[in-house]
Design a protein that fits this description.
A 5-stranded mixed β-sheet has the order 1-2-3-4-5, with helices on both faces. Strand 4 and strand 5 form a beta hairpin. Helices cover 52% and strands 9% of the residues. The termini are far apart. It has helices at 2-8, 27-32, 43-50, 54-59, 61-72, 107-119, 124-144, 154-169; strands spanning 13-15, 37-39, 75-78, 84-86, 92-94. It is of the alpha/beta class and 170 residues long. Helix 6 packs across helix 7, helix 6 (107-119) runs parallel beside helix 8 and helix 7 crosses helix 8. It has 2 domains: 1-94, 3-Layer(aba) Sandwich (UDP-N-acetylmuramoyl-L-alanine:D-glutamate ligase), CATH 3.40.1190.20; 96-170, no CATH class.
């Protein structure tokens, strides 16, 4: 299924979680892809993509992100503290929103949902950077409103998105 999507889907394709494990196997299909491809690995998944440890990726985050994007001509959201968004033209953004409440299973799924929603309406680089910021900003608002880092769950992020977006509508 992943190979079919990479080869035939004529739109922005976002690969996250288990789909990332197939990327090395289908790298030739990725090189031939005519439409944008976005990978959203956390440090451990990025390490697996490049054959290194999560610690190595963490120590060389910018070099890893920039090199991987340039080598593979794709868009990358390298999740973690200060998530990095890197795109093929060399543009890199670093997100400063968010907190450790996001370091839970399912939080990345919420981010992927935000990315796909925004990518349907905005230029891709703007969608990626905005999604990463709003994901983190929502977690920051939850903390400010009394949520605990340990008690924060992905559904809290989903439920808090409306308030975060509302602050930017004024």
């Amino acid at each position: 299924m992943i190979a079919h999507l990479i080869k035939h889907f004529e739109g922005i394709l976002v690969l996250d979680a288990d789909a990332l494990f197939f990327v090395p196997e289908y790298i030739e299909l990725i090189y031939d892809r005519k439409f944008p491809l976005v990978l959203t690995p956390h440090l451990g998944e990025m390490g697996q993509l490049i054959g290194e440890s999560a610690d190595y990726v963490n120590q060389k985050r910018f070099d890893v992100a920039e090199g991987y994007v340039q080598d593979h001509r794709l868009h990358l959201v390298l999740k973690g503290p200060n998530t990095i968004v890197a795109i093929p033209n060399g543009f890199i953004t670093v997100n400063e929103s968010g907190n450790a409440g996001l370091a839970k299973g399912g939080s990345g799924d919420v981010l992927t949902g935000i990315i796909t929603a925004l990518a349907a309406r905005q230029p891709l680089q703007i969608a990626l950077s905005t999604a990463v910021f709003m994901h983190g900003y929502t977690a920051d608002l939850l903390l400010k409103d009394g949520a605990s880092i340990d008690g924060m769950v992905p559904s809290d992020i989903i439920n808090g998105l409306s308030k975060a977006y509302k602050l930017f509508e004024a």
